[in-house]
Automatic annotation (TrEMBL):
Pfam families listed in its UniProt record: Peptidase_M20
Record: residues binding Mn(2+): 98, 100, 133, 159, 354
Cofactor dependency: Mn(2+)
Keyword Metal-binding belongs to the record: yes
Cofactor note as given: The Mn(2+) ion enhances activity.
Residue spans crossing the bilayer: none
Protein name: Peptidase M20
NCBIfam families per the UniProt record, alphabetical: amidohydrolases (TIGR01891)
Length: 381
């Protein structure tokens, strides 16, 4: 397992990554740091450029057996950090405020363990995924032809979770994270002088109608298979002037559901509603899809493997806090692999994810490494 020197070095690396976060799709510098750390571990194969800036290292036993994938994320968030830490972000307007720096350190720690004691059978793949925060990274990775060289049979990931006791793990069979997407609804009419609005075509009535009608498509409530939520996140009408009647409108809505099929149905309803309102008020309509996340659904077999590993390590676990309304770009890895997401408690008083004062607790690094390593041993020997 990890030595005290390992933990110190991984902590230093985590803090270095924290100082220089890269945003989704722009993770080239972070990928270079990870690549150098991986090459020092002498894996059997390193893949770069996966789905963008993603990369993976394979540790191959040379003996037939399953391939077990463990995933971490490369990207930070476009949120300014508010911290007095010596390792606070040095990049204006960006921060590792979701803990991906810590997740990367845990995966590199697993690489150190495997470099000293490779799996007895099969292969272990360490995947560093790009663009997790915007929901496009997993799709880009699994669609990359190079991913066929990994073709995992099992896939696991750990995400830290503030509010859960530090070191406690939450997981369950079935839904872990909702499917979601954003729709940017653009409505185009015709501007006019504010003194003669009848000469133009204002999107104002359509914007007002959508603001009222979209949330009714998904009222939220209990997180079960019937759950649907439509959340208005932004609206804009024309320019901030007094002399011009508006000719353009914009509405942003986030759609969320417990299953991919339910999300597709909710999307269809939202698009149909926007089309009706555009036609009713004589407007041109254009809709953009943004931040698409598949539902993350844990397989029973993977959850049992994880729970067995946790019991062996004497790490407490439960279903507290899961499933989550929030989305996570891991679900697609479970389409062709037996997969499970685990939530690792960051502490009951830890600032929430995506908060400007959040920081990953370094004490979780060896815990995450131990969980990953035990799962790998239990499957591959």
């Amino acid at each position: 397992m990890l030595t005290s020197s390992d933990i110190a070095e991984l902590t230093a690396l985590r803090r270095d990554l924290h100082r220089r976060p890269d945003l989704s799709g722009r993770e080239a510098a972070t990928a270079e740091v990870i690549l150098a750390a991986l090459r020092a571990l002498s894996p059997n194969l390193v893949l770069t450029g996966l789905g963008g800036h993603g990369l993976a290292a394979l540790f191959d036993s040379g003996t037939p057996g399953p391939t077990v994938l463990f995933r971490a994320e490369l990207d930070g968030l476009p949120i300014p950090e508010r911290s007095d830490n010596a390792w606070r972000s040095q990049i204006d307007g960006a921060g590792h405020l979701c803990g991906h720096d810590g997740h990367m350190a845990m995966l590199l720690g697993l690489g150190r363990v495997l470099s000293r004691k490779p799996p007895a059978t099969g292969r272990v793949a360490l995947l560093f995924q790009p663009a997790e925060e915007i929901g496009t990274g997993a799709r880009a990775v699994v669609d990359d032809p190079a991913f066929t060289r990994i073709a995992p049979d099992f896939a696991f990931a750990i995400h830290n979770l503030p509010g859960l006791p530090r070191g406690h793990v939450a997981t369950r069979t079935g839904l872990m994270n909702c499917a979601s997407m954003g729709l940017a609804i653009h409505l185009e009419g015709k501007t006019a002088h504010a003194a003669m609005p009848q000469d133009g075509v204002s999107p104002g009535p359509a914007v007002a109608a959508l603001i009222n009608a979209l949330p009714a498509l998904g009222p939220g409530g209990v997180l079960d298979d019937r759950f649907r939520l439509a959340t208005l996140t932004h609206a804009q009408l024309g320019a901030p002037t007094f002399g011009v009647a508006p000719g353009a409108g914009l509405v942003h809505v986030t759609l969320r559901a417990a299953r991919d099929a339910a999300l597709a149905d909710l999307e269809a309803q939202a698009r149909a509603l926007a089309a009706r309102e555009a036609e009713r008020f004589g407007l041109q309509l254009r809709i953009e899809t943004c931040d698409p996340f598949a539902a993350s659904v844990n397989a029973a077999e993977a959850v049992e493997i994880a729970r067995s590993a946790l019991d062996h390590l004497k790490i407490p676990h439960s279903e507290t806090g899961v499933p989550m309304y929030a989305s996570e770009d891991f679900g697609l890895f479970g389409r062709d692999a037996v997969s499970a997401m685990l939530c690792l408690g960051a502490g009951e008083t830890q600032p929430a994810l995506h908060n400007p004062d959040y920081d990953f607790p370094d004490a979780l690094i060896p815990v995450g490494v131990a969980i990953f390593a035990q799962i790998a041993r239990d499957i591959l020997g």
